[in-house]
Every structure is written in structure tokens, then in C-alpha cells.
Design goal:
CATH class: Alpha Beta
GO molecular function, one term: acyl-CoA hydrolase activity
CATH architecture: Roll
CATH topology: Thiol Ester Dehydrase, Chain A
Protein name: PaaI family thioesterase
Number of strands: 7
Distance between the termini: 32 Å
InterPro entries: Acyl-CoA_thioesterase_PaaI (IPR052723), HotDog_dom_sf (IPR029069), PAAI_dom (IPR003736), Thioestr_dom (IPR006683)
Order of helices and strands: HHEEHEEEEE
Radius of gyration: 15 Å
Keywords: Hydrolase
Pfam families: 4HBT
Length: 145
């Protein structure tokens, strides 16, 4: 199943463009990583906050969609603690609440030394569709009339 979920998320063109890899995904949990390159640096020669945010946001998406309920982000915040050291940053996402319509997820971003770089908190909304990971499609949830 993890293989099918990873294949589904390969369709995220922006995450792919930035260079993010979905390392691990299981129900309510995901790990993503980003090998830092010159293109990820800002004018102060530090990792651009948007690159860190995108890594965390992709981990959030993988974790909250991993159970097959199509989920979109409706609110999120990030706190940056320090500039990452090393050549790789990794985001660990864990769903903290998984209700029928609303879910919550916390993400920690660590640098190569395991030092906390940022914390991301997201709220997701279940959009009344399921994800068929094998087919790579969304399907409407039948409404009860």
C-alpha cells in the first residue's frame, strides 16, 4: 500500500520540482526530505523559508491523505527556530486529530544533525472524496439521501 500512496504523491508537480522526496508514509504519518541545493537559498545565503514550508506542507498532505480520505489544507502556521545545518532537511508529520470532516497534523522539520529547524501545524478539511491509490484517482463519496 505504501508503494501505491507514494506513486500517487509523485503527481505533486511542485514538490517534485522543488526536489522533495516522500520517504515514508503510513496511516496518519509521513516523512519527507529535501536535499538542499543552491536554488533553495535566499539572499542571505540561508535556506529560504518557503522551501522549509513546502517540505512541511507536503509531509502534512501525505499524512492527512494517507488513509484515503481526500483532504485539503484550510489553515496552517509555521514557526522557524534556526537555519538548518548540513545538506538535507527532513519533515516528520503526524496526524493529531482525524475526524470525519476536520483533521489536525503537527510537523517537525529537522536538519541533518537532528536539530529542530521549524514546527508546522496544519488543519485539513475532508472534501467528500476518497483516493484510490492504485488507480491514482479521486472518487466521490456517495451521499446518503
Amino acid at each position: 500500500m505504501e508503494k501505491d500512496i507514494k506513486k500517487f504523491f509523485e503527481k505533486d508537480r511542485f514538490a517534485h520540482y522543488v526536489g522533495i522526496e516522500l520517504v515514508k508514509v503510513e496511516s496518519g504519518y509521513a516523512v519527507t526530505s529535501l536535499k538542499l541545493e543552491d536554488k533553495h537559498l535566499n539572499g542571505m545565503n540561508s535556506v529560504q523559508g518557503g522551501a522549509i514550508f513546502t517540505l512541511a506542507d507536503f509531509a502534512f498532505a501525505a499524512a492527512t491523505n494517507s488513509n484515503g480520505l481526500a483532504t485539503v489544507g484550510i489553515n496552517c502556521s509555521i514557526t522557524y527556530f534556526k537555519a538548518p545545518q548540513g545538506k538535507v532537511i527532513t519533515a516528520y508529520a503526524k496526524e493529531t486529530s482525524a475526524e470525519k470532516k476536520i483533521c489536525g497534523c503537527d510537523v517537525e522539520v529537522l536538519d541533518e544533525d537532528g536539530t529542530l529547524v521549524a514546527k508546522f501545524s496544519g488543519t485539513g478539511y475532508r472534501i467528500n472524496k476518497t483516493i484510490d491509490f492504485k488507480e491514482g484517482t479521486l472518487k466521490n463519496i456517495a451521499s446518503k439521501s
